[in-house]
Amino acid sequence: MVPDEDLQEERRVRRSVYHHAYYLAHLEERRAYQRAYYAARREKKRVYRAEHREETKTRNRAYSMGHREEIRVARGIYRISALLAYGWNCACCDEDQYEFLTIDHIGGGGSKHRREIGSRRLYSWLADHNYPEGFQVLCHNCNMAIGFYGHCPHQEMASAGRMR
Ligand SMILES: [Zn+2]
Ligand SMILES: [Zn+2]
Predict the structure, then answer these.
(1) How far is the CA of 108 from the centre of ligand 2 (A)?
(2) Which of 21, 36, 62, 87 has an alpha carbon within 20 to 30 A of 80's alpha carbon?
(3) C-alpha pair distances (Å), 32 with each of 11, 18, 25, 26, 45
(4) How far is the CA of 153 from the centre of ligand 2 (A)?
(5) Which residues have CB atoms below 5 A from the ion given as ligand 2?
(6) Residue 138 CA, ligand 2 centroid: distance in Å
(7) What is the C-alpha separation between 37 and 34, in angstroms, rounded?
(8) Of the bound ligands, which one is closest to the alpha carbon of residue 104?
(9) Measuring CA to CA, how many Å separate 135 from each of 25, 55, 61, 83, 97?
(10) How far apart (Å, rounded) are the C-alpha atoms in residues 60 and 25?
(11) Which ligand number lies closest to the CA of residue 137?
(12) Residue 100 CA: which ligand is closest?
């Protein structure tokens, strides 16, 4: 290396060491600033949404209308992934027709959970949480029967030996 290049290299290193020290010294400060910044932005958005509720709703609806197909496909992918993750077939009667299947919150509490996460978000919520335990695939018939009567008639048929 010619001396000039050496000098340049040395300067470069010294500069980067200096920058790194500066970076570390101001890390907490910057984090606090960022936290405050994002908190303020969230609050601003919340206030805006509260003040423009109808407008926001209309805009979201318009967006959904314009992107119906994409949203439908995205939802479908989440739905398929969830059904696959939980075994695909109805846990009660073995039904495996896609259109008949749904995800059941084992032991009830499904509608409360759906309310908490938003009525149509269950499938993406499951993906975000790595398909946790406590859910199963049911067909709509079995799901409804269990919801209405607390049990599915398939189970009585099975114990009476009429099914399989
Ligand atoms: Zn079933
Ligand atoms: Zn059943």
Answers:
(1) 15
(2) 62
(3) 32, 22, 13, 10, 20
(4) 6
(5) 92-93, 142, 152, 154
(6) 8
(7) 5
(8) 1
(9) 48, 36, 30, 10, 18
(10) 43
(11) 1
(12) 1
For the record, the structure tokens of 69 come out as: 């197909």
Contacts of residue 164, Cβ cutoff 8 Å, sequence gap at least 6? 158
**Cβ-proximal residues to 117 (8 Å cutoff; 6+ apart), any chain:** 125
Residue 69: CB atoms within 10 Å: 8
What is the CA(145)–ligand 2 centre distance, in A? 7
pTM: 0.56
- pLDDT (tens digit, 9 = 90+) per residue, 95-128? 999 999 999 998 877 778 878 887 678 999 999 9
Residue where the block lists tokens 């992918």: 77
